[in-house]
Amino acid sequence: MLSTIARLVGQDCDVVGTAADGDALLREARRLKPDLIILDIFMPVMDGFAAGRQLKVEFPQTRFIYITFDPDPALIAEAVRIGASAVVPKESAGKQLIQAINMTTALATS
């Protein structure tokens, strides 16, 4: 079953995998080696920051977009420090997420 985020972006992007928690995300990323990962800051088992730090070590070229319910500037700053291409609030994830993906993809190819 695809997650809500996967269903949102699946019409415009190729979704190659989903993960329910940070550990699963690491396993799937190692298996699939995606160009872009959308991850939640507050994932179970391993939060998005810990997963993002680990993935940046293993896959430095992979781009990240974080989604979150909490727009706390400190959280956004930490996401950017880790290397996020964008941070998108969950309540407006539809259009903003597609825009962030398009922007990230355009920057990567320029």
SSE order: HHEHEHEH
What portion of residues is helical?
Answer: 40-55%
The helix count comes to 5
Taking the alpha carbons of the first and last residues, their distance comes to 34 Å
Shape: globular
Overall pLDDT level:
84
Name of the CATH architecture: 3-Layer(aba) Sandwich
Largest sheet: 3 strands, parallel
CATH class: Alpha Beta
- Category by helix and strand content: alpha/beta
| Beta-strand proportion | 5-15%
Total number of distinct structural domains:
1
Question: What fold name stands as the CATH topology?
Answer: Rossmann fold
**CATH-defined superfamily:** Response regulator
Number of strands: 3
Low-confidence stretches: none
- Based on CA atoms alone, the radius of gyration comes out at 13 Å
Q: Order of strands in the sheet with the most strands?
A: 1-2-3
Give a concise summary.
With 110 residues, this protein is of the alpha/beta class. The protein has 5 helices and 3 strands, in the order H-H-E-H-E-H-E-H.
Please characterize this protein's 3D structure:
- This protein is an alpha/beta fold.
- The chain has one domain: Rossmann fold (3-Layer(aba) Sandwich).
- A 3-stranded parallel sheet has the order 1-2-3, sandwiched between helices.
- Helix 4 links the parallel strand 2 and strand 3.
- Helix 2 runs parallel beside helix 3.
- It is globular, with a radius of gyration of 13 Å.
